[in-house]
C-alpha cells in the first residue's frame, strides 16, 4: 500500500463536475417542461402524479445516503459487522409504514403531514410538531453537508468550505428551479451513481485482495465478523436488539411521519403506488446498506496491518473509504472522481429532500392558515424558502464538526426528535382516547427525556466495556514498530477529563445511541396515554373522526377474533360512519373530507 500524498487527476474533476452538471440540468429541464403548470401543488407535490419507481429511488437516497456512504464502512472497520442487523430493522419499518401511516395520511390528501396533528388534536400541537421537524432537519442536514466536504478536503486537498458551499449551491439551484419533480428525478439519477460507486469499490477491492474470500478471512482474523450478540444490556453499543429495534423505530420516524419522506408518498398518483414505492424503497435500502457493509470489510482487509488512523494519514474514521478509493484506483483516472460523485450524490439528495420539505411545511403550516394568497405567490415564496433554508443549513454545518463520527452523530440527532414525533403521531393514529393535553405532555416529556440522556452522554460518556472497540495493527506501517493498538479515536471517544463524582444516572447516560429513538418514543406514548386518562380523554373518544384513527383491529390478521372484542379495542370509535362520511361533498373548511363518491382505503 502507498501512503504517499494523493490528489485528483483532471479526469476525476471532469467526472465529478459532470455529475453536478447533470443534477442541475434536471432542475432546468423541469422548469421548462412545467412552465405552464406553476401552482403550489405542482411545485411541492409534483401534481400528485408521480409513479412508484422514481419515488422509490428518491426515498432510498433521501435521508441516510451521505451518512451511509461514509459512516457505515467506518463502522464496520471500527466495530465489526453487528451493524448489519439494521437490514432487519428496515423490513419491520417498511411493513408498519405501509400498513398504518401511508394509508392514513394519503387518503386525507394532505400537503403537510403536520396538518394531521391539527385535525386530530389542535393547532398548537401542529405548530409544535412542525417546529420540532424544522429543528431536527436543520441539525441533520448540517451533518450531511459537512461530512462529505471534510472527506474530500482530507483526501484531495479540496477547500473544505468551498466543498460545503458548492454542495449547498447545487442543491438550492435545482430544488428552487424544478420543485419536487426535479428533486425526485435527480435523486433517482444520484441513486444510480451511488450503486455504481459501491459496485466499483467491491469489484476492485476483491481483485486487489485476491478474491473476496481473502477479505472475509482477514476480517474474521481481525475480529470484525460478528452477528450473534444477543446481550439485553441497553448500554452496549451494538446488539441484535438495539440495532434491530433502534433502526426500525428510527426509520419508522423517517419514513412514516417525516415530511421529507411523506411528501414523496403524497406525490404518488394513488395510495397503491405509494405503498409500492415504500416496498421498492426497501430493496434500494437493503442494496445500498449491504454494499456499504461490504465496503467496510474491504477497508479493514486492505489496512489490516497498517491502520491509517493510528499512522496519522487520516484524521477521522469517515475519511477511511475515500482514502481507500484513492489507494486502489490510483492507476484508474476518473474512478476516484466517480466515488466522490457517489459521496456527493448522497449529500445532494439528502439536502435537496430536506430543504424542499422545510419549504413545504413553512408554507402549509405557517403561511396558508393565515394569508389568503394566490398559488403563484405561494410558489414564489416556496422558492425563497428553499434558498433561505439552504443558507441556514450551511451555518449549521459548522456545528456538525463537534458531534463526532458521522453515523453516530446522524442517528443521535435524528433519534432525539424523531422518537417523540413518532410517538406523537402514534398517539393520534392508534389511541382514540388520547386528547390534546395528553399529546402535548407526552411529546414534551419524550423530547425532554431524550435530550437529557444525550447531554448526559456527552458529559459522562459510556465506559469502554460498552463500546466494543476493536483493535488495530500498525506492524507494517513505515517507521512504526510492530504494534496492535486501539485507534487514537478510541481514547477521545471514551475518556473525558477526570471527575470526582459520577451521578447515579450515569448508567442511563450510557444508553446505546441506537436506542435514542425508542427511548423518546416510549416516554411520549406512556406519558401521553397517562395524561389523557387523567384528563378524562376517554369521554371524547367517540367524537373523534374515525378517518383520523387507523382501524388496527379491522385488519384481516384480527378477523378471527370475536367482533365484540374488536369493537371494544376500538374504544368506541364508530367505524361504520366512514361510508356516510366518504359520500359527503368535499368541504374546504374540513380537508379531512374527501370528494363526493371517493372511498377511503383505510
UniProtKB/TrEMBL annotation:
Transmembrane segments: 13-32, 52-70, 82-102, 130-154, 160-180, 192-212, 239-257, 278-303, 338-359, 380-400, 406-430, 437-455, 513-538
Highest taxon, organism lineage: Eukaryota
Keyword entries, A-Z: Cell membrane, Glycoprotein, Ion transport, Membrane, Sodium, Sodium transport, Transmembrane, Transmembrane helix, Transport
Subcellular location: Cell membrane
Entry keyword Transmembrane helix: yes
Reactions that this protein is recorded to catalyse: iodide(out) + 2 Na(+)(out) = iodide(in) + 2 Na(+)(in)
Membrane topology: Multi-pass membrane protein
Pfam families: SSF (PF00474)
Protein family (similarity comment): Belongs to the sodium:solute symporter (SSF) (TC 2.A.21) family.
Protein name stated in the entry: Sodium-coupled monocarboxylate transporter 1
Species for this entry: Clavelina lepadiformis (Light-bulb sea squirt)
Organism phylogeny: Eukaryota, Metazoa, Chordata, Tunicata, Ascidiacea
Amino acid at each position: 500500500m502507498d501512503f504517499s500524498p494523493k490528489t485528483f487527476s483532471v479526469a476525476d474533476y471532469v467526472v465529478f463536475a459532470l455529475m453536478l452538471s447533470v443534477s442541475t440540468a434536471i432542475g432546468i429541464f423541469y422548469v421548462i417542461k412545467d412552465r405552464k403548470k406553476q401552482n403550489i401543488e405542482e411545485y411541492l407535490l409534483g401534481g400528485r402524479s408521480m409513479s412508484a419507481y422514481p419515488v422509490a429511488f428518491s426515498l432510498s437516497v433521501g435521508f441516510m445516503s451521505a451518512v451511509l456512504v461514509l459512516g457505515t464502512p467506518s463502522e464496520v472497520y471500527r466495530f465489526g459487522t453487528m451493524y448489519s442487523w439494521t437490514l432487519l430493522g428496515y423490513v419491520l419499518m417498511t411493513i408498519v409504514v405501509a400498513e398504518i401511516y401511508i394509508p392514513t395520511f394519503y387518503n386525507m390528501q394532505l400537503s403537510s403531514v403536520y396538518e394531521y396533528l391539527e385535525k386530530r388534536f389542535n393547532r398548537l400541537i401542529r405548530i409544535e410538531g412542525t417546529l420540532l421537524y424544522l429543528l431536527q432537519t436543520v441539525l441533520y442536514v448540517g451533518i450531511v453537508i459537512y461530512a462529505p466536504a471534510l472527506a474530500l478536503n482530507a483526501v484531495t486537498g479540496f477547500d473544505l468550505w468551498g466543498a460545503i458551499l458548492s454542495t449547498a449551491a447545487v442543491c438550492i439551484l435545482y430544488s428552487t428551479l424544478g420543485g419536487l419533480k426535479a428533486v425526485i428525478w435527480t435523486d433517482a439519477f444520484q441513486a444510480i451513481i451511488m450503486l455504481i460507486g459501491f459496485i466499483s469499490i467491491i469489484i476492485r477491492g476483491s481483485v486487489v485482495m485476491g478474491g473476496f474470500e481473502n477479505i472475509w478471512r482477514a476480517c474474521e482474523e481481525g475480529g470484525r465478523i460478528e452477528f450473534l450478540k444477543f446481550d439485553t444490556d441497553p448500554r452496549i453499543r451494538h446488539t441484535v436488539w438495539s440495532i434491530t429495534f433502534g433502526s426500525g423505530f428510527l426509520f419508522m420516524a423517517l419514513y412514516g411521519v417525516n415530511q421529507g419522506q411523506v411528501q414523496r408518498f403524497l406525490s404518488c398518483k394513488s395510495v397503491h403506488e405509494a405503498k409500492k414505492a415504500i416496498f421498492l424503497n426497501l430493496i434500494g435500502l437493503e442494496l445500498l446498506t449491504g454494499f456499504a457493509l461490504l465496503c467496510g470489510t474491504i477497508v479493514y482487509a486492505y489496512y489490516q496491518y497498517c491502520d491509517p488512523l493510528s499512522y496519522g494519514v487520516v484524521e477521522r474514521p469517515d475519511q477511511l473509504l475515500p482514502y481507500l478509493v484513492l489507494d486502489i484506483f490510483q492507476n484508474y483516472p476518473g474512478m476516484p472522481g466517480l466515488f466522490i460523485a457517489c459521496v456527493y450524490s448522497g449529500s445532494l439528495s439528502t439536502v435537496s429532500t430536506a430543504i424542499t420539505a422545510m419549504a413545504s411545511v413553512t408554507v402549509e403550516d405557517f403561511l396558508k392558515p393565515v394569508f389568503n394568497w394566490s398559488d403563484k405567490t405561494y410558489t414564489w415564496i416556496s422558492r425563497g424558502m428553499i434558498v433561505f433554508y439552504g443558507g441556514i443549513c450551511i451555518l449549521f454545518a459548522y456545528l456538525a464538526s463537534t458531534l463526532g463520527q458521522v453515523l453516530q452523530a446522524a442517528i443521535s440527532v435524528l433519534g432525539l426528535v424523531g422518537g417523540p414525533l413518532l410517538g406523537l403521531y402514534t398517539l393520534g393514529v392508534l389511541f382514540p382516547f388520547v386528547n390534546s393535553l395528553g399529546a402535548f405532555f407526552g411529546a414534551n416529556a419524550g423530547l425532554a427525556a431524550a435530550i437529557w440522556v444525550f447531554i448526559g452522554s456527552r458529559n459522562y460518556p459510556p465506559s469502554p466495556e460498552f463500546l466494543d472497540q476493536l483493535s488495530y495493527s500498525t506492524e507494517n506501517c513505515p517507521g512504526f514498530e510492530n504494534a496492535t493498538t486501539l485507534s487514537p479515536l478510541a481514547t477521545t471517544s471514551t475518556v473525558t477529563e477526570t471527575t470526582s463524582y459520577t451521578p447515579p444516572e450515569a448508567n442511563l447516560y450510557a444508553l446505546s445511541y441506537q436506542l435514542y429513538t425508542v427511548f423518546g418514543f416510549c416516554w411520549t406514548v406512556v406519558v401521553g396515554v397517562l395524561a389523557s386518562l387523567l384528563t378524562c380523554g376517554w369521554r371524547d373518544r367517540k367524537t373523534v373522526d374515525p378517518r383520523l384513527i387507523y382501524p388496527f383491529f379491522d385488519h384481516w390478521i384480527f378477523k378471527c377474533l370475536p367482533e365484540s372484542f374488536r369493537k371494544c379495542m376500538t374504544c368506541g370509535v364508530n367505524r361504520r360512519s366512514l361510508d356516510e362520511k366518504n359520500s359527503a361533498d368535499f368541504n374546504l373548511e374540513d380537508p379531512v373530507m374527501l370528494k363526493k363518491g371517493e372511498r377511503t382505503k383505510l
